[in-house]
Structures are given as structure tokens and as C-alpha cells.
Request: fold
Amino acid sequence: MSARKKSDGQDGNHGKAAPTSLEVRFAQSQLSRSRRQLIRAILDNHEEAFFLSSREMARRYNVDAATIVRTVQALGYERFADFAADLRKHFVTQITPYTVLKAATREKRSVPDQVRHCVDRDTENLSVLRSSLDADRVVELAKLIHRSRRILVVGVDLAASLAWFLAYGLTPLGFDADAPVGSAGNLQHKIDVLTRKDLLIAISFGRCLRETVESVLRAHERGVPTFGITDGNVTPIAMHCDAYLVASTSSPSFTGSYVAPMALMNSVIAASAHIQLKRSLDMLGRTEAEYRSGERWYQEPLRPAKSGGSGAHSAAVGHSKRRKPLSPHHSEHSQSGLRRKPKSRAATRERMISIGIMALVLVISICFLVPKAAAQSDKYSKIARLRCDF
Reply:
């Protein structure tokens, strides 16, 4: 690679980058003083303006929307959308996680508003993908996948998650797909064993990471077909790959948004499955029994039933193995036995106190009645003796 590319690195551009098309237009334009000040303000604060509509940009710079449109046309753009696309490319050349988060903090939104704004941007990215997606090109990629002996999906840093997802989705359909991880050396070794019968899919966005672009160039040297997934028509991936698909990653989040690229991956996997549907069904049928068996899925451990238990516990018990039905006589005794509850300490204590009181009453009664009975017996004995005397 050239010294300039090596100095750029993966996280920032430490050298002097070439001017963007927007900067060239601005330098060559013959704008009035007020329009020049407006464009300069937009360029100097591009991280705050690249995602704005014409009306939002007008409010941001205290002008009306017509002024924004006329200024853009004076730069040579037919539509504001064309200007916005170049402004975004200008922003991408200098984007860092810090600038994205800093731009988001300047919008003076509350945290819940930031959350809603992030979701709104993801929704917009999906809408743009739906309206601009070239379905025929997706089918072209799917056919290329079917013709390839091996598919190597290259994604570095956060894009590695996308590469892994695509490779994982293609593998159950019977494709030899791999998303290598680890060092750059491991990636180079994987590319070195590819041939013209294989395919390299490269995923990178914005300025594109050096290792991903170099993988494409290395594959070209070996005559390996390449296909790119990126977020613009002028990114290094778009320029160096044989063909490419575009999905926006624009987001107020400093990580970017992979919602649209993930949707694009799903469309590629779906197309790959439906091109040869019988083959796909045969491959997926091999794992049908595994998916239907209970060994694959988590099951709650069986626990003894509890009276008044929660619905979740009852449902868990319901999945336990059923036992053979018992006889009515045995069932009746079993149920009565289940209804017997062990006596608590308080109940036992109360019963002992009751027994003690009863015993005390009995003792007192005996002590009171025995002398009285003895006295009564002496009285009867004296009367009997008197009768005998007479």
C-alpha cells in the first residue's frame, strides 16, 4: 500500500486529505458575500448540518428555506438532495466518534428526545434503503454466492458483527461461508487460498478501514471476484470492488447505525435461499429434527408442586412427565394425606396449655371433692351407729 494510505490508519486521517467535491465547488464558485458566509458556516460546522433538511438547516442558520435552496443552486447543484449528499461525504472524511457525540450534544435535546431521534434516524435509513434498493443487484449477488465454491466475508472492527451474521446465515443453506477473525495475518492467509471460483464480500463504510480495502486489493491480485457492502457510491469499497450494494449508516449515535445494513444482509440471505428453493429446503430439513426436539431449547427444571403457586410455576409443572393414574381409593387417601398440614409450634403450644389447664382443674376438683366426700361418709356412719343403738 502507498504511504498515504498507511498513514491514514483506521481511526482518523492524520495527514492532509484531498479536498472534497463540495470544497472544490466552494473554492471555484462566485458567490455573494452573504452566501459565501452561509456556506462557510455550514462547512465549518458540518457535523451539525450534514443530517439536516433544507428547512431544518434554514432554522439553524436563521434564514428561510428558499435562501438555502438558492445558495445551493448557486454552487451548481440542481437539488438540495445533491448538496446534502456531498455535505455528508465531506463530513465522512472528518468523522470521528467524538465529533458525532459532540454534534448530538449541541442539539439541546433531552435524553428521551435523543432516544427518539436515534430511532427516527434508523427508520429513515430503512426507508431510504427500501426506496433505493436495487433488487436485481441483490439477486445478482445471490447467484454469485451459488456459483462460488467458498465465500469469505470480510468485516473489521464493528463491521465484523455484520460479516459474522452474513456468514452464519449462509452456512445452514449449504454454503462454505466464513468470516475470519483475529489478526491481519490470519485474514491474509485466508485470502491467499482463494481462487477464481471463490468470492470475497467486503463490508466497510465511510472512509473504509485499511485492512478491509487491502483485502479487496489482495483478492484482485489473485483474480478472486469481489462484492462490496458500503454506504456510498464513492467509498473505497465501492470504487475497488467489482460490484457493490449501498446501505446508510447515518446516525446521531457515535457508533453509527447498522439497522439498514442488517436489513440488506437479510435480503441477501433470503435471495440466496429462494434462488434454489428445493436445495435450501433439503439443507434445512437436515436440522429439522434438532429444532423440534427438546434438547436444543432451554427447559425449566422440574420442581414439586406448591398450593397457590404462580401461573409460571404451574406451567413448568405441567411440562413434567405424567404419572400413571391411581385407583380411586388410593387417590382419596393420597389427597387427604396431601391436605394434612404439619402442625405449627404455636398450635402445639396452645394444645399443651389447654391440657395443662384441664389437668389443673381436675386436680383442684379432686382436692375439693375428696374431703367433702369423706366428711359426708363420716356423717352417714354416725347415723348408722345411732340407728343400731336404738
About this structure: Confidence is low (pLDDT under 50) at residues 1-16, 312-324, 326-339, 386-390. Residues 17-94 form a domain with the Arc Repressor Mutant, subunit A fold (CATH 1.10.10.10). The chain is about 60% helix and 5% strand. The two ends are 152 Å apart (CA to CA).
